[in-house]
Amino acid sequence: QTKDPMMQHDYTGWENFHREQWSWDKKTRGTHLVNCTGSCPHFVYTRNGVVMREEQSKDIPKLNGVPEYNPRGCNKGECAVDYQYGPHRIKYPLIRVGERGEGKWRRVSWDEALEYVANGIVDTIKNDASDCISVFTPVPAVAPVSFAAGHRFASFIGGHTHTFFDWYADHPTGQTQVQGLQGDTCETADWYNGRTILMWGANSASTRIPDAHFLQEAVLNGSKMYVISPDFNSTATKADVFVPIKPGTDAALALSMVHVIVKEKLYDEHNLKEQTDLPFLIRTDTKMYLREADMVEGGSEEKFYTWDTKTKKPVLMKGSWGEEPEKRAKLQPGFMGRNTFVFPDGHLDLGDLDPALEGTFKVKLADGVKVNVQPVFEVYKPKLNEYTPENVSKITGVAPSVIIQMARDFAMNKPSMIITGGGTNHWYWSDTVLRAFILLCAVTGNEGYNGTGVNHYVGQWKPTPLLGVVKLSFPHSPKKHRFCQTTIWTYYHGNVYDAMENDGVDTAKYLREALETGQMPLYPQNGRDPKVFICYRGNWLNNAKGLDYVLRNLWPKMNLTVDMNFRMDSTALYSDVVLPSAHWYEKTDLSMTEEHTFIHMTEPAIAPLWESKPDWEIFALLSKKVGEVAKKKGFTKYFDEKFNIARDLTKLHDQQIDGGKLATDEQACQFILDNAPQTQGMTLDMIRKEGPQRFKSNWTSPMKEGVPYTPYQHFIMKKKPWPTLTGREQFYIDHPTFFELGVELPVYKAPVDADQYPLRFNTPHSRYSVHSTWKDNVLQQRLQRGGPMCEISPADAETRGIKDNDWVEVFNDHGRVVVRCKIRNGEQSGRVTMHHEPELYVDLLGGGNSQSPIPVRINPTALVGNYAHLKFKPNYYGPGGVQRDARVEIRRHTGSVTV
Ligand code: MGD
Ligand code: MD1
Ligand code: SF4
Ligand code: MO
To answer: I need a labelling partner for 581 at 20 to 30 A (CA). Which of 24, 149, 175, 830 fits?
Structure first.
């Protein structure tokens, strides 16, 4: 007999097995290098050389007056170790022996694989041209070193690399149009400061999992959250008001709110006069801005006027494109249309000037002719008048009383912010939506202050220490690098049919003009086809819009396709050579996101498993092999006329690793930190020991200790010009393309109806995957139905005789996907939803995936490259991937089902 049997119990050994899984002998830093926008610092625990688990590091410093970032993570990240040891892992270099996509491989040595790839590269340079070599790798913020490896390689050989921000339809085209910025946004801790929060086309409870708590905390603290989405999505469950809107009609809703605000005189007049182009004068005869060149012989085409109500005269406004042109070129950051930080503070200050917002005035031009001019606001008024709540209710399905209440809250219960996402950004007319959103913020003065603004987290797009990343990636300078605009590249080389004539837009006309005049780039040049495609860190083939066109027309043009990956994604499956890449816990890289303002790292917990290698090392080895093969073939030197560079492949390896200074990924990390003002003085060791470090400076606002970052303070508070043509937030764009399409001002454009099918096809992002990553993970599949599915409303199911879990075919003229169907009460009638974006081989029948019914569609406004701040720069301006306008039909699949 014992007094206390528990105390007396003698463990025999096996019981400790369970306890010891929580012990470790090594703790390293880690994160997940996926485009999830989370960028969550973790610790990785290893015992006896086996990685046991990951856990949130919880060491992001706290900001003042807002809840913490810690602990941040999600359901995918917390099982990332599964990818390290799971069955997905690619262990050895592979060369295809069957057809592309057939999955028949031969295991080869690294030497043989690299020689195979190097042969393809050297032969292409010799027989075709270096620009026939294409390298695709996206989003530097996620893993800048890995990103830089392939770009650097492409830069040295003269190949082309791809834009991705626009191609993913993540680039906020309308923001560039209005603000001359690639984008900027508040960090998510600032959500807590919003009193009125419009969650508009984003689903943060599923797609910003680490940060969604800020919204709930804000609501608990008394903020009011509207969720505007066609479906009752997971964020809507946390809303004060759920606003079910008809798909693609958001611009109308935003403009109706502006209408109410103007009508009820709730607008911030001073902000409009100082920060926007709404007081700038438009000639009623030409519809063009009144320019200095109109008024003065030899005057500038890029200086503009307002009407001073005191002196009753037109007055030239400061800060425009034409002012001190030498300044605008000075160290122009890639995210801005021009550099306006070099202007003194207070440059936009109106002083004694009181520009008119309304009225019609007469001015005398240089040639003596008198013309009428009106402020943009006056020109806009008749259009705005159309967006009455009653009219807009018919378009959007939102009740007039709700529109009015939202407008009043937004204007009066300040600070107010919009959080937006793919639900509005992935549409053909997303630019008009964003212009309307920004207008809503501008008219209410909701910009530049904490808790305000249009906040856009579509993609992990913000590599804050940009200069360091650029220097590492584009060693000859970005000016001597071939940047290919991926949407155009895919549309053109994939021979995609967009059916846009049904919607009255002649895409070919606009595209031809943009290409012929060099407004947009296309590679390879001189009418050649691309020949070599190297893809890594992105599943390009799987998420290519117009997938069926791509597989039919573009892919066969490639003599060689290469994928570097730790798992067999669809692009790898359709490649000729697959090179095993190290997992995130087996290499060193940095990580950052626009969702917070801290930089952190991942490092090797263990050496790369099997024969895998870090991407940085793979490209170093490839550069060496290319040199050797070139020598063997007797073809080592060629002259790159475009950039006036004499290239020598025998020097490639030395260039790639900068003579040994960049031999390792650790060195490359430090190079980035050293070369950007945002991270200067930081070391990798510091991050390792102390944890995530806060950026020292940022893009459009200063960093303040303990205060959440919110953008635009350089413009709003410091009153430096916006980097646009007019130096203001510019809502009027007097460009022929904008006139032709009727979008010179923010207006509502109905979604594209070119596919003549009854249902809209919605492809949002899933809680259980990051794009295609984790779609093949059993743990994630077990949290849901176990495979891909589409969702329709009970009404749409009933009319088609579809039952829950039936196999169905979703189809149109572009392609089809066969998938199981879920009947969902939260879905709107008239729409099919299929979460983006299962691998071609995961539980789908019929060969396609969710991209098959979606063609590539190019909005001509994004082809404009000859209008001051509207010009092509990689990921700054160019046509987006457009993936929400497709229309489809759905029917029961009656063929054989073997799954
Ligand atoms: P979506 O999921 O596409 O965008 O994620 P989000 O920005 O959240 O759509 C959000 C909501 O908008 C959905 O409920 C959709 O039905 C709705 N919606 C669709 N059409 C409309 C419309 O016309 N109007 C309105 N108002 N709403 C509409 C994307 C984002 O998520 C991105 S771009 C990336 S790169 C990351 N991807 C990602 C992921 O793949 N998985 C997870 N778990 N998180 C992710 N976070 C990021
Ligand atoms: P991506 O990610 O980058 O290929 O796709 C992103 C893209 O899907 C995005 S951001 C958007 S917004 C998009 N959305 C969208 C939509 O909503 N609807 C429709 N119809 N279309 C849409 N199209 C685009 P993904 O799929 O996760 O692939 C990343 C691959 O990289 C591998 N990987 C790595 N590889 C290497 N070499 N090294 C690494 O460190 C590494 N980390 C990840 C990963 O395994 C996966 O195959
Ligand atoms: Fe990892 Fe991204 Fe999930 Fe954070 S959000 S835990 S970084 S996968
Ligand atoms: Mo994205």
So the answer is: 24
